[in-house]
Structure formats: C-alpha cells, structure tokens
C-alpha cells in the first residue's frame, strides 16, 4: 500500500504563506504531479491538530456539551474536545486537559479510538478521537474567555435518539461516536433500527 502512495505523491515546488494567525494559516503551493503536470495554485489550510472524546461517567451517562457555533449560526450538541496546544505532551494529554477544562470531569481510563483527517483535500491537520470511561466530577469548568459551554448528561438511550434524529451535527464527532460505540459494543441497536426503518 505504501508503495502505491509514494508513487502518487506530489512534489511541492514552492510554498507561499498568505495569512497566519493563532488558529488559521493559509498557504499557496505550486506542485508537480508524478506525470509532470504543474498544479498552481493549490491552497492548503493549516490548523492545529484536534482531539475529542466519547466520554462516560461512572454511572454510564454520556457527557455532551452544548455551545454556540458562530460559523453555523446555531447552538448545537457536541462531544467534548478542542485543540492540541503546543504545551500538550501528546494528543492523550490534550484530551485529558480538554475534558477537565470543558466538563470538570476526570476519568479512570482514556483509550485511543482513531485518528482522522477533517478534510484531506484542503486541511493539513488530524483529529484524534478517544473513549473516556469512569468519569467523575472533580473540578469546576475552566473555560477560555470566549467560551460558554453547558455540560449535558444523557443516557445511552437518549444518545441513540439524538443520533437517529440527526441531532449531532459535528461530522468529526459523529465519526468518534461510530468508533466509540463499536468499541463499547453499543452499535448493534443502530443496525437493527435502521433495518426496521428500511422495511417500512
């Protein structure tokens, strides 16, 4: 598989940064394909890596957060998560910090689920997804100045309803839910319910 990937790799001939800020950097690349075709311009958006987690309390409640998302113009339910800071030793350290800051919970166990590309055609970053279990409220929230986050606890049944009603809008979080519920063995209900809907 790697041999085929290397065979298709583009060569970057030059890069020009168009804009740089804390959370957003845009660059223009001039590239050459293996067949010799010049691709110019090709725009790449550089973001920091991100983390999120499907998190459960000690009594198996799912920890969600509700916050306003300005680009969408809506207040939505999401999984806890955020940016991997330069001071974080690893994505695991980042998700531990984000969970504590956004929810006030710490966890008995946090395990990796997957890492995915938010948009491989234009973005250079990765998103690391985790499963956190055994959560206990140990701290008050510690939010950034522009953050207003409400912690929402739901049962597994309520989470199922949210998913089936298309009320989890953040695509990366839907992916985390897929891998997380596969890991916990709680995805069979979805297959069953979808099959029932198809039969109606």
UniProtKB/TrEMBL annotation:
<dbReference type="Pfam" id="PF00293">
    <property type="entry name" value="NUDIX"/>
</dbReference>
<feature type="domain" description="Nudix hydrolase">
    <location>
        <begin position="46"/>
        <end position="176"/>
    </location>
</feature>
<dbReference type="GO" id="GO:0016787">
    <property type="term" value="F:hydrolase activity"/>
</dbReference>
<dbReference type="GO" id="GO:0019693">
    <property type="term" value="P:ribose phosphate metabolic process"/>
</dbReference>
<dbReference type="InterPro" id="IPR015797">
    <property type="entry name" value="NUDIX_hydrolase-like_dom_sf"/>
</dbReference>
<dbReference type="InterPro" id="IPR000086">
    <property type="entry name" value="NUDIX_hydrolase_dom"/>
</dbReference>
<keyword id="KW-0378">Hydrolase</keyword>
<dbReference type="GO" id="GO:0006753">
    <property type="term" value="P:nucleoside phosphate metabolic process"/>
</dbReference>
<protein>
    <submittedName>
        <fullName>NUDIX domain-containing protein</fullName>
    </submittedName>
</protein>
């Amino acid at each position: 598989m790697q041999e085929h990937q290397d065979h298709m790799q583009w060569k970057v001939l030059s890069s020009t940064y168009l804009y740089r800020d804390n959370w957003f950097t845009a660059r223009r690349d001039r590239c050459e394909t293996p067949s010799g075709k010049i691709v110019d311009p090709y725009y790449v958006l550089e973001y920091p890596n991100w983390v999120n987690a499907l998190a459960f309390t000690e009594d198996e409640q799912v920890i969600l957060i509700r916050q306003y998302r300005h680009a969408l113009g809506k207040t939505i339910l999401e999984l806890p998560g955020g940016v991997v800071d330069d001071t974080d030793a690893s994505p695991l350290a980042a998700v531990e910090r984000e969970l504590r800051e956004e929810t006030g919970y710490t966890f008995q166990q946090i395990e990796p689920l997957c890492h995915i590309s938010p948009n491989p055609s234009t973005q250079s970053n990765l998103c690391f997804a985790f499963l956190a279990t055994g959560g206990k409220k140990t701290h008050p929230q510690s939010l950034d100045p522009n953050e207003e986050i409400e912690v929402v606890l739901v049962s597994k049944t309520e989470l199922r309803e949210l998913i089936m009603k298309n009320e989890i809008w953040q695509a990366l979080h839907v992916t985390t839910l897929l891998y997380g519920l596969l890991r916990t063995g709680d995805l069979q209900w979805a297959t069953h319910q979808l099959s029932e809907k198809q039969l109606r």
